[in-house]
Specification:
Elements lengths: L9 H10 L7 H23 L7 H23 L1 H4 L11 H5 L10 H5 L7 H18 L4 H25 L17 E3 L11 E3 L1 H18 L10 H17 L17 E5 L5 E5 L9 H19 L12
Antiparallel strand pairs: 1-2, 3-4
Helix pairs in contact: 2-3, 2-8, 3-7, 8-9, 8-10, 9-10, 10-11
Amino acid sequence: MYKVIDIPGLVPFVQKYISSGWEGISTFSILVVIAFLAASYFLPKELERKHLDPAHADWLLILGVFGTFVGAKVFFIFEIWDQVFVDTPGFDGKYLYPLTHFDGFPGRPGLWSSLFSGSGLVFYGGFLFGILFISLYMIQNKLDIKAYLDATIPSMALGYAIGRLGCFVSGDGCYGFATHADIPVLTFTYWPTSAVPSGVPVWNTPVMESFVSFLFFIYFQKWARFQNFKKFSLGAQYLILHGLARLGIEFLRVNKAVIPFIDPPIQSNIPGATGETTTFLNGYYWHGFSQSQYVSIAIILVGIYFLVKWKLWEKEQPVTA
């Protein structure tokens, strides 16, 4: 006989999800699909142009997308670790209770409910896991990892650009800190019904990142891939360029510092668009490097390391008969 393991809170969660009914396709989901379709169009063509096997394109895309969602969720848990696992008197352990109760501690995000929710995605987790999954596939199939990774770079830049637009239109919380500036596109105000600060002008960091990533796509798609650089030059360049862009954007984003350098900012009530008050930061938020900034610094250094070690600014010598 098999023993069914019951996680308290799991059944009510499933029942609530089923009874709530389908609310239609989200704009974020639509843009994720568009990003996948765009990559599925460009990647096989690039593999064929580089005389690589385009038959691997489907698996590279599927594993890349799967790894992206898995890694994004795993890194999200790391980001809210101190909220999921807390020292609470009267419960059966700091770590045991969140593992055995689907919704976690009362009033706190649960481990399992956070993992299986439709929100809470950290890009760098997805980025690293996506690369890991497709690298393992290439190792398993004895493919030229450097060449295949280079072929994925334009599609990766385009997919990220489209995905960031999905964050924006879905009202994701990756907004910047409050600002008095009124710059079209670069600043915006959330709707009064939004769960995030409504009526508060903030920096439009998703669109900023999307725009920069579109520029990266144009650079790789229209110029860099035709320069006959050494293998993995495009990969190293992308690590450096994207790392620098994300490092800079994070100075504008509302993210918690891993190790605060100064005291965290004070929150205050700011009048909303319809007269209500919204709790938000009353000034510049950055008070230490965030998780994403540390990862950005790491991938920048990795990109520089490979660029210098293998002299990837040089071009391949033409093959002579």
